[in-house]
Design goal:
Number of helices: 33
CATH topology of the largest domain: Cytochrome Bc1 Complex, Chain A, domain 1
Shape: globular
Number of strands: 26
CATH architecture of the largest domain: 2-Layer Sandwich
CATH class of the largest domain: Alpha Beta
Length: 951
Amino acid sequence: MSRSKYSVILLIALLTACSQPQQLKTVAQVETPDSAFNLDLSYQTFTLDNGLEVIVHEDHSDPIVAVATIVHVGSNREKAGRTGFAHFFEHMSFNNSENVPMGANRKMIPELGGTRNGGTWSDGTMYYEVVPKDAFEKLMWIDSDRFGYMINTVKQGTLEREKQVVKNEKRQRVDNRPYGHTSHVIKKALFPTSHPYNWTVIGDLEDLQNATLADVREFYDQYYTPGNATLVIAGDIEFEAAKASVEKWFGEIPAGQAVDPMPAMPVSLENSQRLYHEDNFAQLPELRLTFPTVEQYHPDAYALDALGEVLARGQQSPLFSRLVKGSQLAAEVSAYNRSEELAGTFTVRVRGHEGVDLDQAYQELQQALMDFEAKGVRATDLQKIKARQETDFYNGISSVLNKAFQLGIYNEYAGDPEFYKQDIANIKAVTADDVMRVYHQYIKNKPAIMTSFVPKGHPELALIDSKKADVVEENIVAGQEPEFTEEDADDFPRTATKHDRSEPPIGELPALISPAIWEAKTDQGISVAGIVHDEVPLVNFTLRIQGGQMLDSAGKNGTANLVAQMLEEGTQDKTAAEFEDAIGLLGSGINVSAGTTAITISGNSLARNFGKTMDLVTEMLLQPRFDADDFERIKNNTLTDITAAYGNPNSIAQKVFFRKLYGTDHVAGQPSIGTLDSVNNIELDDIKEWYQQNLSTQLIQFNVVGAIDSSTALTALQSLDQNLPHTEIELTYRPAESPSTTPQLYFIDVPDAKQSVLIVGKQLPAGTDFKAIEIVNNRLGSGSSARLTQMLRITKGYTYGAYSYPIRSEFYPGAFVASTQVRSNVTLESLDILKDLIGHYADTFTEDDLAVTKNILSKGNTRRFETLGQLLNALNEVTRFDLGHDFLEQEQALLEGMTLSDAKDYINQYIDEQDMIYVVVGDGKTQLDRLKELGYGEPVVLDRDGQILDY
């Protein structure tokens, strides 16, 4: 997490000490190149005697409150030999505290109808929650106890459990995925061993294992002090009430020792270094060039941000033009600056097609940079960057949590919440000359760390003269992880306080109603629905064309996906680059994607630019370019994407699971992207034929939310309505053969996998009551307080997370799915737990479970319709599945009326473990033989496409 590119926030602030009279300062507007930000936001601040800086922003639009605590300690404060400790401590902080029961932080907040999490980056740690307003006081009790009263409760059992959880997170995010070790290799090479950025945030496994209780105490005492943090409260709360609550709950926390600020520590390289790694999971070669740059908020950081966009974003960027479109050596390129608190880096990344020699890619990269030098910076590129600024700005303040993040980050790292003004000014001030200057100063002919990550067994693809990188692969051995016992005794010393720190009561929650939905039909049959929401001057929309992959011809699965990609490649009157410029200059975003049952065009724009944005959508649909060269490039890139997925254990598991659940011939059993064989069969004429036969007003559902009314939306659709075909195209329900009615276990071998991916599930028949399943699934696998995560993560330490959920479709049977990724040497043990928890769920589901579920889901609705994205998702569900305008009231009636007997009936009907299949992707040589002990016979061994192997 660092200062985001071009996503800045308009914040109106006054920093005052708590002893001074509170004053309020507002700014009506800040000028931008083409328009004004018209907002009336305000916030107030005060500082407690112990040094905690507090910011309060009132937003009474939804009955929710967000709280963010930013602690100014990240991995840059760690010591060599104790790397990863800031992140590890974040995990420890969620376990116990003196006055809040053990585990309540993870369980209580969801059960109050809220969400909670934390995050650690190089320079800081953040804890955050969003709760219904009635839970605000209870949240302050929990948060303050975690911050100021947790250290006495830390015990060895909890320490050992969290070590396992964090190590599982590292395996999932780093060790068991393609290119996961790249950051580690670059940091070790670029930063000296004495530099705080020499190690990754998650750290080294050996360091994590060696962490002691004394380390935890030392870290807490040194950095978790009020003067080293900012607390932000945003939402439906009055300032005086918030201030009184903060003073009560946080005011008695001792000030502790002061934390000295760290000076900027930029680095330099005398010579380039070339390093390579044979990646066990990567199927494609990847080259990265990393240059040292400047710290955050440095004047050059803004021009470097712009340089990254100019070099690699868009059809006309030098890297895309040369490597993706020209030589077609790469499927993907990117360039970006990352300026952090102490230092910065500029990265150029090229992911080649299968078998590409990275020396060739490097030569083309150098030529692309020469092209850039010769042509310079297009004025249009800077105009697009600045046009996006306003849209990104409003998107960045669309939720109270985002507002809290931005307020806190500016205060803690720039020293002033009002730094938004300088941030905006710095972005606006970047010129083409600035971009060229920083290119010459930091990039051209400058030393870099050059990393080649190549598929295992293919070191010849790496840059010539590269040295083998020092990557330590974990050897996971059965029984090597220490056993631990969770200690829940409260025999720890308690801190004396003036205020009573017992649990406060819950407040009152106002009644909720469904958002007001309007619906209409155009003359030629386009269905239209919308929700007016004018808190920010933005519009979000989706144009859903029913059919998608369902309409692909036999043997040519993936056609709809290619059609969707081709629609973004320009029109008859505009090349792909010209079309991209037209969108960018509006500050809008248009994305086309294909799924099993639809092609969807998603858009986001400023309200004043909605009409022009829809003109481009109309042009895209009525006059697609369908250029032959673009088609060949996109087809090749798609084949590369399919190949890359063979190296991702989670992708393999998902693909094989649905093939076995629905059958290879069923549309739901085939990946919507297609297969290597099917995509190779598709020609440009197939794309044109699909477009001509399957596009009709009768299949279109247009949904829009934001600061426009129905007449504006309908006007924007007139040309599309008049000029698209309006023929009837029949889409029929497609039943699937049900799998065996006895459990079946499948296994796919990924040699040396550090984790096993487990997916369990079954089909759900037509007529399934999905809302009922969501209700009864809540205590099984919906979130951190549910059984799966509580057992597999909290009790056993086997995983980073485990979840279950229903999947809904209008054209074929749905599915119930449970999934997790576990340490490989506990694969069988984890399967046994899944089998037991799911198999005995109905028997163990109690009245208390039902009461907790009702509380979570009913109160959770307070957070359900806050942002445009949330409103659009709800509207899409309503129109896709014909839920009715009073869908929320219907859901509430079902929830409130559900009895324990009803819940058990739903569980037995829809979550019957004996109807489920099990798919495991992991290391065959260590895990396969053990799996027969699950009791479901010999595992059926499959290849990565789901075909049976002789093993």
